[in-house]
Design a protein that fits this description.
The complex is a heterodimer of chains A (about 450) and B (about 100).
Chain A lengths: L4 E4 L3 H12 L5 E3 L21 H5 L3 H16 L4 E3 L2 E7 L2 E6 L2 E6 L2 E4 L3 E3 L12 E3 H11 L1 E2 L3 E7 L1 H12 L3 E7 L3 H6 L1 H4 L3 H17 L4 E2 L3 E6 L6 E5 L5 E5 L2 E6 L1 E3 L2 H5 L4 E4 L4 E4 L12 E3 L9 H18 L8 H20 L15 E3 L4 E2 H11 L4 H8 L12 H12 L21 H10 L1
Chain B lengths: L6 E2 L7 E6 L2 E6 L4 H6 L6 E2 L6 E2 L12 E4 L4 E3 L10 E3 L8
Parallel strand pairs in B: 2-8
Antiparallel strand pairs in B: 2-3, 4-5, 6-7, 6-8
The chains are: A alpha/beta (about 450), B mainly beta (about 100).
The structure holds flavin-adenine dinucleotide.
Flavin-adenine dinucleotide binds next to helix 1, strand 4, strand 8, helix 4 and helix 5 of chain A.
């Protein structure tokens, strides 16, 4: 019997790992909650949409095509045990708990590779729960997967390279982009240049994206802004912001794409017992790994954005590196992939520059109006959070969660943990890592259908 | 339902799907998700369960759970990750939830 290797996620990291394992004679089980492989960046349109790779993925279309076709071929040939539309919801020792179409199941694994990607970070602003406000990545998914813009007139607000990329994809698709409103000052980009020179290709790409937005599509680009509020009564009507000089502005729009870069999705690694460490540069928690993606738990590996945000090319490399480690750990004699290790490293150095250039504006949290919703699931406002935490004396985010219900709702803190932790650290005047992080709890995602819920209740 | 939230930019010539939202007949195109179908019809997905407002989803990738809707036939679905189908009867209020 050969070893049971399970991969969670069929994005660039998971797909590359699966292909490398398959090439070495191991048939990995690959699960993904999406119906098709590709992950976030190479997410595929619904089958009914007949769109070419070059139209959907722009200059990445060859990479997308290679990944999709190689994965499809390996799955069709039976070299990969491909299980789409399947969610991993818990890890307990060597059991992975999964759910497909409301039916729970478990897999007893010898090796587990977690390649679950990232989720967006949000800094709340007044009215961000108003219909018509979507996450930046959500805005991209609407376009990529469904050929839709999130609105007739779209503003992109937040910070990070994805802000510009999505704005450009919208402009290219013919959407009306009213502007890109970036909280990061332009000067930070200049001072981060030395680090970004670790990948001149990526830097050049960033410059091309902004130039195309400004010159070809005449999109309004604003740096160093401070968002004031999303305007509207039933749905989005505009965005109010202050420019770098403090002057107030309003732009009319019908939709907002909001995002402050990404953070690794670490819940499954946490449940598997992997050591999770704080990375001050990105202000994110991530699993502690060796250069190949080995975690602190033997048999468990992490690759791609789930290990620390570094982008799609790095994710492909990380997937191959993790596959290499798994093969070595299973006793195969193979030589060290030196060039891959070096290339992977260079993406992470580049990323340190990005982290500095587009640092999340956590100081804005000090001025967020008290009645702003912090936790959109439980409706916890900034004021309620602060008052409860102060009155009950929480000094740690899990305590704050149980006192305030912030982070207790259906998204399990995915969209409030970042802001709530920063807020708590500011209140207590502590370094961010000292307020800790939300402990993962199974199921890491609620079952998609209520049928699953019934089964789960029956289980426990 | 008034004006639509989403704007279709690409591939609009696909098979027409008939579904309903709270009993109102609507149309979508094959390949839409329940969320995109609803957002191409109106601007709301569901009544908020925590305040007087409405919600219309947020992440579109199955992470925020902001777009739960209910089916006439029973059960709850996540609108952003469920494909629209002919004859689907969607309810924007939790049938078990009474205020
Ligand atoms: C919404 C969004 C949009 C992005 N767009 C871009 C872009 O345009 N360009 C760019 O360079 N970078 C983009 N990124 C960053 C992007 O994540 C990386 O560049 C790249 O996709 C990382 O690859 P990955 O394999 O690590 O993760 P991903 O591509 O995110 O793949 C992870 C996969 O794991 C699956 N998964 C996660 N959790 C579970 C679970 N519990 N059970 C089952 N399956 C699970 C997901 O469905 C997904 O398919 C985006 C990120 C996000 C979140």
């Amino acid at each position: 019997m050969s070893a049971v290797v399970v991969i969670i996620g069929a994005g660039p990291a998971g797909a590359r790992a699966a292909l490398a394992l398959a090439a070495a004679g191991i048939r990995p089980i690959v699960i993904d909650e999406q119906p098709r492989s590709g992950g976030q960046i190479y997410r595929r349109p619904a089958e009914e949409l007949r769109r070419s790779h070059s139209e959907v993925y722009g200059e990445d279309h060859q990479k997308a095509f290679a990944l999709h076709s190689e994965f499809d071929a390996a799955a069709a040939a039976g070299h990969i045990d491909w299980r789409p539309s399947t969610t991993a919801w818990a890890v307990h020792e060597n059991y992975l708990h999964i759910e497909c179409a409301g039916r729970p199941d478990q897999i007893d694994f010898d090796r587990l590779l977690i390649a679950s990607g990232a989720v967006e970070r949000v800094i709340p602003l007044p009215n961000w729960t108003l219909p018509g406000t979507f996450s930046l990545g959500g805005a991209q998914i609407a376009l990529k997967a469904h050929g839709c813009a999130i609105g007739e007139r779209v503003a992109f607000v937040g910070t990070g390279p994805l802000l510009y990329l999505v704005a450009l994809q919208y402009a290219q698709a013919g959407a009306d982009v009213v502007g890109v409103f970036d909280t990061s000052p332009f000067s930070r980009r200049i001072s981060s240049l030395p680090a970004m020179l670790a990948r001149p290709d990526m830097l050049w790409r960033g410059i091309r994206i902004t130039t195309a937005l400004a010159m070809r599509y005449r999109v309004k680009l604003r740096n160093g802004i401070r968002p004031v509020a999303i305007r509207g009564s039933d749905s989005v009507e505009g965005v109010a912001y202050r420019d770098a000089d403090g002057r107030a502005h309003e732009v009319a729009c019908t939709a907002v794409g909001l995002g402050y870069d990404l953070r690794p999705e670490v819940q499954l690694a946490d449940l598997a017992g992997c050591e999770i460490v704080y990375d001050p540069g990105s202000r994110n928690w991530r699993p502690h790994l060796d250069a190949y993606g080995r975690t602190s738990v033997a048999d468990v590996y992490v690759a791609g954005d789930g290990a620390g945000i570094a982008g799609a090319d790095a994710a492909e490399l990380a997937g191959s590196l993790a596959a290499h480690a798994i093969l070595v750990d299973l006793g195969q004699k193979i030589s060290a992939p030196t060039t891959m290790l070096e290339a992977h490293e260079s993406f992470h150095r580049f990323r340190q520059g990005i982290d500095r250039a587009f640092a999340a504006p956590i100081d804005h949290l000090r001025e967020v109006p008290a009645d702003t919703v912090l936790c959109r699931c439980e409706g916890v406002t900034v004021k309620a959070f602060k008052e409860t935490v102060a009155a009950m004396g929480a000094r740690e985010i899990n305590r704050a969660k149980s006192m305030t219900r912030c982070g207790m709702g259906r998204c399990q803190g995915r969209y409030c943990e970042f802001a709530a932790s920063e807020l708590l650290a500011q209140m207590l005047d502590l370094p961010r890592e000292e307020v800790g992080r939300l402990r993962a709890q199974p199921p890491v995602k609620p079952f998609a259908s209520s049928a699953g819920q019934e089964i789960r209740r029956g289980d426990s | 339902m008034s004006v639509a939230q989403f704007k279709r930019l690409k591939d609009s010539a696909r098979r027409v799907i008939h579904f309903s939202i709270d009993g109102e007949p609507c149309t979508a195109r094959a390949g839409d998700s329940v969320l995109s179908a609803m957002m191409l019809t109106g601007r709301l997905i569901r009544q908020s369960d925590i305040d007087a407002g409405f919600r219309a989803g947020f992440c579109l990738m199955g992470a925020c759970q902001d777009c739960w809707v209910w089916l006439e036939t029973g059960g709850r679905i996540r609108a952003c990750t469920t494909p629209i189908e002919d004859g689907l009867s969607i309810k924007t209020n939790d049938p078990d939830f009474r205020t």
